[in-house]
Task: structure prediction
Amino acid sequence: MTRVALAPSILSADFARLGEQVAEVEAAGADRIHVDVMDGRFVPNITIGPVVVRSLRRVTRLPLEAHLMIAEPDRHLEAFADAGADALTVHVEGAVHLHRTLESIAKLGKRVGLALNPATPAAMLEEVLPDLDLVLVMTVDPGFGGQEFIASTLPKVRRVRELLDRVRSECELEVDGGIHPETAPLVVDAGARVLVAGSAVFEDPRGVRAGMQRLRASLGG
Result:
């Protein structure tokens, strides 16, 4: 069975003890850390900037994914790269000149990610697929943690998987939104290989390690 990577999202972490919680998920077997960046324009919420990414870089060796849910992402790519992000993911809906944006990420030496909102068709990937290291399919509307999984997005996850397989792409397929032990097997069955989970990990009443273990167990691991 193909191993599935888990990327806990710090959006659901306790920011009063963020470093400690990142250490906990690392010890519990997280494969990377997902950093949700929101600007109050592309999405309603406002979260964090490069300063927090720089602080995280000092406390973990895990890869840091900066998910840029922001308008005009080109203005901020270098700042997040310099702060220590290993991957920069932008939204197809938020980048006016997408080829230029993706090229800029690659020139910064970072993994190139592209995210699709729930209502955005998989076909939007076709013209830029050779430029990508990571495709992120949103299974909730972006902007807030703890939302309910949109089941109607599952066929799109499958379509993206089929597209990647058809061209023999090594691009990773990541899914973000409403991921918990009940939904994780569904998206993996549809073709996801990286799962972003926030509430299921950081808000488990038995603690972070228990949340990670429940997710792994739901995948047969």
User: Anything to note?
Assistant: The two ends are 10 Å apart (CA to CA). Residues 154-166 form the longest helix (13 residues).
